[in-house]
Each structure stands twice: as structure tokens, then as C-alpha cells.
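ok so i was messing around last nite and threw this chain in just to see what happens. nothing serious, just curious
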Amino acid sequence: MMNDQDWQSRTKLLLGQDAADRLFQAHVLVVGLGGVGGIAAEMIARAGVREMTIVDGDTFDITNRNRQIGALVSTSGRSKVAVMAERLRDINPDLVLHEAEVYLEQERITALLDAASYTCVLDAIDSITPKVQLLQQCVKRSLPVVSCMGSGARLDPEQIRCADISKTTHCPLAKVVRSMLRKAGVEKGIHAVFSPEDPVPGSVVESADAGPYKRSITGTISYMPNLFGCHCAAAVIRLITGR
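result:
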């Protein structure tokens, strides 16, 4: 009979002991725990990463339930960090987990990146200013980073891919991010998950209630943010393991 120490046996069977050890020794920073970041954090934890830092200043609300893995009737109004922390610890009670219930601003980004020696960073921020600031700092520090571009306003899962940010196309968010990074002297060196699918017409509306750093609301379907998140997690895991 298998015991709880064998919960990673299938991962080791696929990747081998050396790769599993690299995951166990890794510390991954996940910023943003919404539709993309929530599932990505879970996939990273399930892969056997021993130490994680999760960051988000938001709470779950009713509009999150169509796509975010932590969004339930029972979690409405609760901190995304607190909910996901409970979930990740229930997956791996030995996980070394650091929690930060904050929205990132320039000073906080610097402090966050100074706080630990991260193996890899996953950017699942959907607000442009802090997203670009985080990416800029990661490149400056030669810190491996995977960044999710726009997962909303799209329907075709077969078009999701990962490439250097300089190779992203047909994504309005990626276009703005590239432009802002270029002004900061950054043109490549970021692993970007994106889709070249043209956004569905009429699926983005301007709104004053979109949230911090946001000016619009984007239509989404249940599976797309989660598939983007799985692609992000895969990129992180493969960067760590070299597989």
C-alpha cells in the first residue's frame, strides 16, 4: 500500500528523480491568482515544487465563478491568496508557502524580488502597469520569467502557445506590453504564453468599475484562462527541469 510520501511517484516516473529533485528544490513566485494564475499555481504545486510565494490583493466575487478555480459560492468575498493557500496546502501539506495579499506597485515589486532567491517567476497579472514593471525587474535581474498575455476574448484552445515575447502576435495586451518594455530597453528574454487568435468582436467593453489599473472588462469562457494557466505552469516546470 502506498503512503502519503509517495504522492509524487507518477511525476518521478515521467520526469526521473533528477528532475523531480530540481522541482523539490525550486522556489516559484506566482503573481496574480485569477483565472490564469490560480490554476497555474495549483499545477506548479502538484508538480512537486517545494516552496512558493503567491501574490494577489483581490477577493473572489460572483463574476469570477465562470472561470477561476478558487471561485465558489463559499469563497465569495474571501481573499484569493487565503483561499488558494488553503487549497495548495491541502494538496501538499509540506509546501513552504509565503503569502502576500497586496496589489503590486513599483516599490512592492522591488521588495518582493529582493525578499528571496526565486528559481522562476510566473506573471499572471492582468493590469498593464504592474505587469510591465515586474517583467522589467525580472529581466534586469536575469530572473527566468513566464508571462501570460491576454486569455480573454478568445475561444480556440488550439492556438495557445509559448514563445519569446518578441514573437507574440495578434494580442492587444502583448502589443502594449512589448511597446512599454521596449521604452525601458527590454525587447526579448521573456517567455510569453499567448494566442494569435483575433479577439472576438464586441467582447471588450470600457468600464470605470473594472478594478485597479484597469479600464475595461473582457468577456471570458470557462476553459481559456485555465488552459493559458496550464501552459504557463508547463513553461515554468520545463524551465526548472530542463525537460
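not much to say yet. The helical segments are 9-15, 17-25, 37-46, 80-91, 106-114, 128-140, 172-183, 223-241.
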